[in-house]
């Protein structure tokens, strides 16, 4: 599903590489936590997975295709197979909560009836069933995060990438969110979740990938 082969990324030729010598295979249906201190390169790794950035060395393969060989159209098509939860949420301010969450299903040309039912169900799950018509600027940070999560998972993506998805919610909601991710994983979604929360990892054990100084190692925290 995801293959890194000696991948590196360097923002500036005079600077040290942010990610370096990264080789790793993530199998379809796997669930990994991505851990490590601030500045370790986690955000850069995620940007490469979402194809905001392309490796400056090595090869990154997604869905069997080298990201270096993709056109803009190819990238757009592949992103529709992915769910992404960004730290800055990336909600469209001119759209309501319902409209933001519905976007992946609209791109799949789902019927309005199916969209309405799915959006209402997922927003109820994340505790925002009463916020359907609210605008993003009317929401708290934790509510925006839950909207972003609902949007990322509503179409049951093949890959789910989540950057600190439980950072702005209480422990009860965090457990609910991870349970949702785990259910998606049981149905075949590959999950890569960045977190600093040791308690979360202990309560919902999955393999942890530890990123430090731009290099990736297994089994540490």
Can you characterise this structure?
By secondary structure, the protein is an alpha/beta fold. The model has no long low-confidence stretch (mean pLDDT 91). Strand 4 (57-62) and strand 5 form a beta hairpin. The chain contains seven helices and ten strands. The strands form two sheets. The protein has a six-stranded mixed beta sheet with strand order 6-7-8-3-9-10, with helices on both faces. Strands 2-1-4-5 form a four-stranded antiparallel beta sheet, with helices on one face.
Contiguous helical run count = 7
Question: Strand tally, please?
Answer: 10
Strand residue content: 15-25%
Structural class: alpha/beta
**Spatial arrangement of strands, main beta sheet:** 6-7-8-3-9-10
Q: What characterizes the major β-sheet? A: 6 strands, mixed
**So what's the oligomer here?**
single chain
């Amino acid at each position: 599903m995801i293959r890194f082969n000696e991948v590196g990324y360097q923002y500036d030729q005079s600077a040290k590489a942010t990610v370096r010598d990264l080789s790793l295979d993530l199998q379809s249906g796997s669930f990994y936590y991505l851990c490590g201190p601030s500045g370790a390169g986690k955000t850069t790794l995620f940007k490469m997975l979402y194809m905001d950035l392309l490796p400056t060395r090595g090869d990154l393969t997604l869905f069997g295709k080298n990201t270096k060989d993709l056109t803009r159209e190819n990238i757009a098509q592949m992103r529709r197979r992915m769910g992404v939860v960004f730290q800055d949420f990336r909600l469209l301010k001119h759209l309501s909560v319902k409209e933001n969450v519905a976007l992946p299903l609209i791109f799949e040309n789902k019927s309005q009836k199916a969209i309405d039912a799915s959006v209402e169900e997922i927003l109820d799950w994340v505790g925002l069933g009463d916020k359907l018509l609210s605008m993003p600027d009317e929401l708290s940070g934790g509510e925006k995060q839950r909207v972003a999560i609902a949007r990322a998972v509503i179409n049951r993506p093949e890959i789910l990438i989540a950057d600190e998805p439980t950072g702005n919610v209480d422990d009860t909601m965090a457990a609910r969110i991870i349970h949702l991710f785990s259910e998606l994983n049981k149905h075949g979604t590959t999950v890569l979740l960045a977190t600093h929360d040791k308690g979360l990892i202990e309560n919902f054990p999955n393999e942890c990938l530890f990123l430090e100084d731009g290099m990736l190692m297994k089994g540490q925290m």
